[in-house]
Please model this.
Amino acid sequence: MQKFIIQGGHELKGEISVKGGKNSALKIIPASILSKKTIKISNLPKIEDIDKSLELIKDLGAKINKQKKYIEIDPENINKNSLSPKWANKFRASIMFIGPLLARFGEVKFPHPGGCVIGAGGRPIDLFLEGFIALGAKVKIDGNNYHIQAKKLKGAEYFFTQISVTATESLMMTATLAEGVTILKNCAMEPEIKNLADYLNSVGAKIEGAGTPTIKIKGVSEINAGEISIMPDRLETGSFSLMAAITKSEITIKNCEPKHIEVLLNIFNKIGVPFIQGKDFLTIKKAKKIISHNIKTHEYPGFPTDLQPPYTVLMTQTEGQALIHETIYDRRLQYIDMLSQMGAKISSCDPHRAFVNGPTKLYGKKLTSPDLRAGIAMLIAGLVAEGETQIDNIYQIDRGYENIDKRLRGLGADIKRV
Ligand code: EPU
Model:
């Protein structure tokens, strides 16, 4: 198994380009099933989760034409409506295939999706199932396996009792081919949702309100396919901004949309991290003194749960005390033990809250990456720590950040993959 070896304490410098968004691409690939025409996708990040998503759609019968700058998916010959456990067990985003398969074939079988262990008892899919039932589907559950059938999907009103990004996207896609009008209420508002709706509308869907809490979908009998360039990954933008602040470096982040991390930039203004922001670039300047600041994770446009771990690393380097309150997932603070081993002063209150007292010097340690976002936080902690940090299980980092070691070496980081 590969690991990262980092010699910390180097100031970083230069430019880094943001790749296409994982959490956007993971919805666009399955959305291609809604049409029988070929979709052309560019700016796809070269990461594990995308490879798995492409393997899964190939397994269903789609043809894939991979070129250097784009890929084409021809979904015409998709003839299978069951997800093999071989793929579904490997990643949570396999759930994104269910709605489009149901909409196209009226039936779908699948095992409970696998993935990151950040939610207690596995991550539930109850909202998806409730939504499909609202659209007229019948759901049979046999142990870990689901069988959903709908002779005809019918537009309906559905209220999400909990805000969920993927469930919002899933029902939005499914309702695109349902008969009549669907109104989804209390939807997630993440930019990836609007991006998906914009693409679907560009090929014939009739979706209004994506990016707001209420989405109205007028069902159509078929949709076409077209071209899409995956939007920049806002979580890479955020991670790199935090990395610059933590290592007190000046870095320019290119090919990004700073408006998607508005909450973090507003906090930077309050705590003393200087930056220059353009439409598609962000320069984080060297900070003189950064002060601590509480965060409470929230659905977009609030503070993203995915940036909570690297933000916590920043709070180990700032002056004062910060309360980190993780509200979305139950197991997203587990990495703080590792930060404590590195020398951070963190007191855990309960699985959702921890106090960080800064500034403290961090020291290199042997660590294991528990999940994707905690993994990048450990990597960044290694960059600021004194001495050598070794990170195992880096598969969890590669899942979301393309070629991260090479890209960070471009900024002067001393990081090796062995
Ligand atoms: N939830 C339910 N029932 C459901 C679905 C979700 O109770 O049927 C709960 C979850 O357990 C969680 C909350 O709703 O407590 C929010 O989860 P959400 O469904 O929004 O998460 P997700 O859609 O599974 C997406 C991203 C995550 C990101 C969250 C932020 C994708 C593929 N994943 O997950 O990304 O953390 O939104 O809410 O878009 C990552 O990139 O590292 C990652 C985990």
Remarks:
- The CA atoms of residues 26 and 298 lie 22 Å apart.
- The radius of gyration is 21 Å.
- The longest strand covers residues 320-325.
- The pocket of EPU is lined by residues 22-23, 26, 93, 116, 119, 123-128, 162, 164-167, 188, 305-306, 328-329, 372-373, 400 (CB under 6 Å).
